[in-house]
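[Discussion] Sanity-checking designs against the backbone

I'm trying to build intuition for which residues belong where. Below is a structure token string of 607 positions. I'd appreciate it if someone posts a full sequence so I can compare it with mine line by line.
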């Protein structure tokens, strides 16, 4: 076989065409016995893209029949998929390379949360420089977080249509520009508008970076990668006030914005130059165009399309889904709505602290701006401890798996239950030790349980949502993100009035009681989650509870697996979540084994 042809087909040079043909894989959630009818716009797009590609010379006798489903005709084109050991498949990249990409993505993701709250250390200076009230200056945080909530509704569909890299290129440079605009602002309107748009454009890594992790790491490898990566968006809000405080104190408040701009610019250049495309549909579409061009160059006129384009929604439909389905889930699904409220409350409390800490440590205890930023170290220690402890949840998750089956989604919640108990403990601790004569270290230590709880709650809620709403996970997570950012935007606005009216002790106590009321929530979902999923029209995962799972016989498990797989195979493609559903819909191929993410019920070997 011609060497160039082998590269185009995505097969290692040592694999013969016959062995490759025998190793053709099919996706159990998108079964293909024949290519089926095609929409004309997809076919025209594929053919026109191929004709515009550069000519590739391959001897006709050397080019074997492509090892893909289909016949290569207009009605039944070859459906291009990853082949075993295909090096264009991100799952097959080396561990060192994937860790390097993961690290770079994590550092880039840390920047927008850093920018969101490093601003808090400049509020006093902004108040004086712009001649505005403290409440209006605090609104700079709220505008940024509002943008955080709105941006993902746009960047997620763009990621599906054009790929992860295009979504990043379309957003992150604009984040740099609006951050620069903040540094150059000389009136309140310009300051608030640039903060709003910086948040909207800076939110794309928070949406796409997690999906990129899912693109590269299989379900059995993803836990460690996700655990390490999850520190980035959580440490940003902790590092922001620390760095911003000392920079404001030594260099002036505008240098906080300049440093953020420099940081974001470096990440923009590094990510564009180094991070490759990881989104499977985009990679396969490029491969299909290359194969189409090679075929036409030899006069074979075979038709190739990516397997994801067999039945495809229009771009308008994709954007419509991205804008409407999150709200459908938020208001019709009890699991999504309740967990969204709980997560939003915890998130709002975190951002309330960014305006409460200056009151507690600077106004009451007389600390400088730089010293006030150090008060967030307790929160940072809690987040790091959470990152260390969180993998222990995987032990529980594996133990909940029986007879070779992945555990039900409720097995994700024990760590959330622990976090739910720790959160009010930390908040009560902080509330009643925040004022002198209690030593300053005591309230800072009290923030450790809350930081630990914050990470445990959020990672558990995210995993539980993905497992419960496998096909609609992206929309469910987007719904939670929108509500979360609404709370994060509003809570800082009333912190000054709350602490001014109730005092340090009772203001903190009120916040602690809010979290205390929500403690039963994860326990209730642990007990009744399976029942709620049975009633849901959007939760396709197996509705078996932990107690029922323990009583199942092997024969019942096999029957249920067959029934679930039959339901999935007969479900119309139009009902499927778009490909940007991320981890829940992606799959790893390792030596002919198909491993499904998400609920784990669709596991087939020997495909």
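Best answer:
Here's mine. Compare freely.
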């Amino acid at each position: 076989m011609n060497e160039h042809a082998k590269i185009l087909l995505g097969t290692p040079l040592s694999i013969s065409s016959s062995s490759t043909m025998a190793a053709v894989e099919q996706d159990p959630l998108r079964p293909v016995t024949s290519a089926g009818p095609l929409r004309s716009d997809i076919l025209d797009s594929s053919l026109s893209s191929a004709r515009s590609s550069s000519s590739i010379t391959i001897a006709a006798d050397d080019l074997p029949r492509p090892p893909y489903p289909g016949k290569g005709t207009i009605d039944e084109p070859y459906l291009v998929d990853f082949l075993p050991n295909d090096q264009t498949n991100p799952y097959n990249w080396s561990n060192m390379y994937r860790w390097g990409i993961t690290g770079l993505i994590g550092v880039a993701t840390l920047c927008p949360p850093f920018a969101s709250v490093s601003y808090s250390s400049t509020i006093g200076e902004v108040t004086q420089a712009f001649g505005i009230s403290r409440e209006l200056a605090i609104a700079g945080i709220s505008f940024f977080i509002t943008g955080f909530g709105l941006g993902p509704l746009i960047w997620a569909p763009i990621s599906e249509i054009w790929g992860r890299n295009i979504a990043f290129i379309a957003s992150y440079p604009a984040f740099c520009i609006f951050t620069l605009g903040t540094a150059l602002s000389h009136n309140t309107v310009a300051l608030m508008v640039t903060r709003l748009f910086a948040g909207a454009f800076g939110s794309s890594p928070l949406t796409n970076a997690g999906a990129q992790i899912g693109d590269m790491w299989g379900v059995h490898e993803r836990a460690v990668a996700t655990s390490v990566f999850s520190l980035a968006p959580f440490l940003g809000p902790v590092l922001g006030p620390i760095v911003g405080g000392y920079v404001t104190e030594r260099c002036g408040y505008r240098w906080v914005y300049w440093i953020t701009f420099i940081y974001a610019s470096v990440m923009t250049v590094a990510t564009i130059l180094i991070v490759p495309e990881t989104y499977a549909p985009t990679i396969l579409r490029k491969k299909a165009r290359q194969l189409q061009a090679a075929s036409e160059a030899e006069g074979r006129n075979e038709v190739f399309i990516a397997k994801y384009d067999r039945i495809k929604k229009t771009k308008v439909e994709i954007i419509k889904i991205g804008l409407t389905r999150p709200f459908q889930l938020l208001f019709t699904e009890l699991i999504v709505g309740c967990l969204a409220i709980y997560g939003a409350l915890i998130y709002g409390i975190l951002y309330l602290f960014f305006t409460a800490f200056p009151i507690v440590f600077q106004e009451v205890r007389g600390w400088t701006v730089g010293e006030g930023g150090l008060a967030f170290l307790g929160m940072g220690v809690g987040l790091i401890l959470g990152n260390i402890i969180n993998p222990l949840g995987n032990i529980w998750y594996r133990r909940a798996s029986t007879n070779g089956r992945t555990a039900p989604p409720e097995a994700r919640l024990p760590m959330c239950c622990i976090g739910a108990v720790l959160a009010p403990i930390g908040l009560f601790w902080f509330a009643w030790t925040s004022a002198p004569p209690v030593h300053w270290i005591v309230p800072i230590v009290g923030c450790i349980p809350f930081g630990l709880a914050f990470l445990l709650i959020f990672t558990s809620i995210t995993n539980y949502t993905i497992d419960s709403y496998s096909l609609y996970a992206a929309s469910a997570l987007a719904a939670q993100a929108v509500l979360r950012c609404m709370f994060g935007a509003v809570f800082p606005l009333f912190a000054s009035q709350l602490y001014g009216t109730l005092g340090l002790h009772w203001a903190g106590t009120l916040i602690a009681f809010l979290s205390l009321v929500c403690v039963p929530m994860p326990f209730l979902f642990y007990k009744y989650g399976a029942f709620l999923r049975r009633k849901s029209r959007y939760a396709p995962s197996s509705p078996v509870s932990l107690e029922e799972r323990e009583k199942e016989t092997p024969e019942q498990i096999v029957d249920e697996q067959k029934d679930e797989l039959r339901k999935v195979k007969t479900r119309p493609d139009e009902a499927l979540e778009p490909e940007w559903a991320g981890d829940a819909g992606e799959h790893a191929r390792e030596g002919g084994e198909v491993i499904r993410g998400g609920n784990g019920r669709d596991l087939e070997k020997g495909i």
